[in-house]
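fold-stage: in
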Amino acid sequence: MGLIAAGCGEQKLASGDLVTASRAVSVDVGRALALPPPGSLAVTGVTQRSYDNAVSQVVSLATRGRTPGENAIYVAFFTAADLPDSTGVEGNLLKEPGMDDFALGREMDERLPGVAMSPSAVFVQNRYGPFGYAFGRGSTGEACIYAWQRIASGDSLFRPRSGMISARLRVCDPTGTEASLLRLAYDYAFNASLRRPGWNPVGDAPPPAPELGKAGAPIYPVLQPSAAAERQTRPVSRPRPARAPRVERNSAPTPEPLPDKPLEGYPTVPPPPAP
């Protein structure tokens, strides 16, 4: 009986005996590191991976259309530790995603297969600093955007002492335009931070304007005129007076009608003989 009991005890699994093939775990959407603007795309799931020097997430967004892939925000929070030399994973260290044309083109080929993306040469900047983006259209004509941003609080590009944030935004929308999709890159926000001493890649908030709260420095709001105000300020169109008929100066005079009886003082010419 003792051997049987011992054998049954060895078959019982502990919580730490299960080893998964992936280090990715699903977390609640409220723990997303980055969020899209309010009222835009809904967050449908968050997949998180932890490393010795970083935490990365794929924040899945509501997706519609026929372009392969899913709308998502790819974000990683890095500590101030030295980063490996190239992209990828080395041991349990996450390497920083590249910002060169080759690395970004490879990302777009993977996350936007079959979509011809054109990088924009226009300088754009959101609340966290400058970012880049590319725009294209899928085979069915739906608009697609891929944006990228690196935030390191002005520290050294190769060794950010205050940590670093890497973010990518991938969105395709059959009813979207370049302007509407670009607004997502302007207004997305980070939703967390790392509890590490000195970790502050975004930097401190700018100070308020020096004239704020002081006398003699009024600040006026920019108000949009209402429809009633527009109707009151809009000039009233008045009917134009009818124009007199135009007289053509160079037109030929109207010929006078021929008289139907002989004129006085002139001989009468007989008609030609009948044939």
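fold-stage: in (second)
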Amino acid sequence: MLKLSRLTDYAVAALVRLGTAEGVETSPGIAAGTGIPEPTIAKVLKVLAGQGLVISTRGARGGYRLGKPLAEISISEVIFAIDGPIALTSCVEGGSGQCDSQSLCPVAGRWDPVNDAIRGALSHISLADMAAASVPRALRVPGPAINEVV
């Protein structure tokens, strides 16, 4: 099962919250608005600030704001900031490279196109898409919509 870390999920929620804020937002304010514990939000914001996705301002009127608009932040950037490179298996580019069976594996090196496709799809979904609950047209699965009568 492919599964994002809980911290990545929290980071997306925090960034979307910041995208709706006017001016700066404090970590307790983000925590209250998202339902995520404040120590966890503080940890996530520190990592995101280190990657330039948020900008922190110290002082009495300090807080956090987005480093760039939601439309310019992709899901893949958030995953990379929190979890590191997107790697489905240890033998793909960006993976840990520590596979004991690599010399015997019949699919060694063949996961790269799959990994690239997933990374590409995630790079085309912005946080603005997430905030609007929309999927970019290029990534929509052809066929009838869920609510459409066939």
